[in-house]
Amino acid sequence: MARFDGFVPGRHQIDAFGAGGFRFAEMSHRGSILALPAGIQIWPIASFAKITIASLQPVLDAAEAIDFLLIGTGKDIVFIPAEWRERFREAGITIEGMATGAAARTYNVLVGEDRRVAAALIAVE
């Protein structure tokens, strides 16, 4: 399996998650990822507390291609702040938070349905 070098173009389902990372597009990556319509990229976020609107800017930059953002919050579900919901609503994006495993599975279903979805997934052990 190839090592992920930071960006892989195209929409890819998440083949596996856990052990601190993800497998997708016949590659593996230890750490968190952003899965956007244009491709999957490294996301240097290790915990929900480290997420900022700035760290989610790539999603906002691609807003014209995204209807839903799933945030994989780690092992546990964490409340998405109202200010984030409002900022993404202004960009036309519905934001939902759920544990990373549930977010990865939901992302795969929505990609399979050819929905306009993105995911910000915090790696879990």
Structure explained in plain terms:
It comes from Bosea caraganae. This is Xcc1710-like domain-containing protein. By secondary structure, the protein is of the alpha/beta class. It has a single domain (2-121), classed as Hypothetical Protein Mth938, Chain: A, CATH 3.40.1230.10. Helices cover 22% and strands 33% of the residues. The chain contains 3 helices and 10 strands, in the order βββββββαβαβαβ. The strands form 2 sheets. Strands 2-7-6-10-8-9 form a 6-stranded mixed sheet. A hairpin with a 2-residue loop joins β4 and β5. The chain is globular, with a radius of gyration of 13 Å. The protein starts with a strand and ends with a strand. The model has no long low-confidence stretch (mean pLDDT 94).
Lay out the secondary structure.
Layout: E1 2-3, E2 7-9, E3 14-18, E4 21-24, E5 27-30, E6 33-36, E7 39-42, H1 57-61, E8 68-72, H2 82-90, E9 94-98, H3 100-112, E10 117-121
Parallel strand pairs: 1-5, 8-9, 8-10
Antiparallel strand pairs: 2-7, 3-4, 4-5, 6-7, 6-10
Question: How would you briefly describe this protein structure?
Answer:
The protein has 125 residues and is α/β, with parallel strands linked by helices. 22% of the residues lie in helices and 33% in strands. A 6-stranded mixed β-sheet has the order 2-7-6-10-8-9. Strands 1-5-4-3 form a 4-stranded mixed β-sheet.
